[in-house]
């Protein structure tokens, strides 16, 4: 499976524990366990924002120590903020997915699309607009690689690169995050997901 950090459109550190659980479910995944995050860190996950884990703790994985992430002179590892109030404390979340039962694809379309047009284009193609968990699963489990930014169900725009190259993701294989653009702008394509029945 694959662990991925998630924060909503509102920006970082906006989810209490219960909202974090729901956010992962909404993206076709579950909130990650410590063991899953630890395995992801050992595989190279480096993320400087603290996120909820399934045991209610708040942690983050660092492979390249640097000033804003615990200091330059610290050792790599999973940084632990400890346990926080599940109702009042707000962080990002680490989600986990290993579930991939369908076809994930970039929809070839003659024009760039607004968010609403993207949703409709996938429906017209017999699919649904893809979720964040689905783009991470396709990237990690299937080696999906596409240098085209596309809308996803949560209103974010991302693209998956498994073969780093100039102009796409020069230094690392990653799901690149473009942001949460204004949904009315016709600037992007769309990633769709068709479940196998």
UniProtKB/TrEMBL annotation:
It is found in: Secreted, Extracellular space, Extracellular matrix. Disulfide bonds join 48-69, 147-168. One of its GO terms (molecular function) is hyaluronic acid binding. Coiled coil: none annotated. Keywords: Disulfide bond, Extracellular matrix, Glycoprotein, Hyaluronic acid, Immunoglobulin domain, Repeat, Secreted. PANTHER family: AGGRECAN/VERSICAN PROTEOGLYCAN (PTHR22804), HYALURONAN AND PROTEOGLYCAN LINK PROTEIN 1 (PTHR22804:SF10). This is HPLN1 protein. The lineage of its organism: Eukaryota, Metazoa, Chordata, Craniata, Vertebrata.
